[in-house]
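Exercise 7b. C-alpha cells:
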C-alpha cells in the first residue's frame, strides 16, 4: 500500500489528531495529514449549512461564473473568457449542475510559462461539503493597442481546465486530490488548514448563530400559545 493511500486512512494519524476530538491542542502541533482529516471532517459536519453560507457570501460563484467573469484586478472591460469547448474539459456533473456554488478559499499558485498562465484555486463546493482545486490555464489576448499605466488591456482566454476534488465520484479520485493538496497543507507559511478552520468556515458559525437566533425569536413569539397548551393539558414536544 502506497504512502498516499496510508495518508487517507485515520489509523495512521498521531495522538494530536485525537486531542482535537477530546480536548484542546495547539494548531502548531498538527501535521499536514491531520489538518487534511480535520478539514474534511469539519466540512462534512458543516455540509447542512454550507449552501446558506455560500448564498450569503458575495464572493461565492458558480463554476460557469468563475470561468466567465471580469478579470481579477483588471479594467471593467477586461474579462476571463472560457469557450464551450473548453468547458467540456470539466466532469459533466459540473456543467449539468449550473447552480452549484463555490466558496473561494485561496489562490494556491500562479505561474507563467511560454505565454501560458496557470492559476490554481482552492474552493469549497458548498453543495457537497468538499474541497475543490481548479486549474485554469489561459493566455492573454490584447483588446487593442491602447496603453494604460499598467500595460495593455487584455482578456484572459482560457485554453485548459482541470479539477481535483476529495471524492471518488464524478470521474474524480480522492487519492489524486490527496496527492495534490498535501504540499499546500505542508507549507508552514501558508497554514492552509488553520486558514480554512479559523477564517473560511467562520462564516458557518455565523450562519448557525443566525439560525439559532431565528428559532429563539420564533419560540418567544409562540410562548403564550405554548403555555396555553400546557395549561390545557396538552404537551409541547420540542
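Sequence design result:
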Amino acid at each position: 500500500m502506497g504512502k498516499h493511500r496510508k495518508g487517507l486512512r485515520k489509523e495512521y494519524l498521531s495522538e494530536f489528531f485525537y486531542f482535537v476530538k477530546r480536548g484542546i491542542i495547539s494548531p502548531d502541533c498538527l501535521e499536514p495529514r491531520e489538518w487534511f482529516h480535520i478539514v474534511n471532517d469539519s466540512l462534512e459536519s458543516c455540509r447542512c449549512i454550507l449552501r446558506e453560507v455560500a448564498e450569503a457570501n458575495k464572493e461565492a460563484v458558480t463554476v460557469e461564473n468563475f470561468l466567465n467573469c471580469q478579470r481579477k484586478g483588471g479594467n471593467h472591460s477586461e474579462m476571463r473568457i472560457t469557450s464551450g469547448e473548453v468547458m467540456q474539459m470539466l466532469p459533466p456533473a459540473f456543467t449539468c449542475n449550473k447552480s452549484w456554488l463555490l466558496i473561494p478559499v485561496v489562490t494556491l499558485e500562479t505561474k507563467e510559462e511560454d505565454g501560458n498562465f496557470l492559476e490554481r484555486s482552492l474552493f469549497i463546493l458548498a453543495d457537497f461539503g468538499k474541497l475543490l482545486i481548479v486549474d485554469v490555464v489561459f493566455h492573454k489576448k490584447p483588446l487593442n493597442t491602447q496603453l494604460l499605466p499598467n500595460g495593455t488591456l487584455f482578456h484572459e482566454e482560457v485554453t485548459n481546465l482541470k479539477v481535483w476534488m476529495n471524492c471518488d465520484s464524478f470521474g474524480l479520485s480522492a487519492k489524486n486530490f490527496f496527492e495534490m493538496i498535501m504540499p499546500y497543507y505542508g507549507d508552514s507559511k501558508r497554514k492552509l488548514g488553520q486558514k480554512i478552520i479559523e477564517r473560511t468556515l467562520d462564516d458557518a458559525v455565523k450562519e448557525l448563530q443566525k439560525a439559532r437566533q431565528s428559532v429563539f425569536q420564533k419560540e418567544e413569539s409562540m410562548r403564550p400559545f405554548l403555555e396555553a397548551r400546557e395549561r390545557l393539558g396538552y404537551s409541547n414536544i420540542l
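Instructor comment: The mean pLDDT is 88. The CA atoms of residues 46 and 204 lie 7 Å apart.
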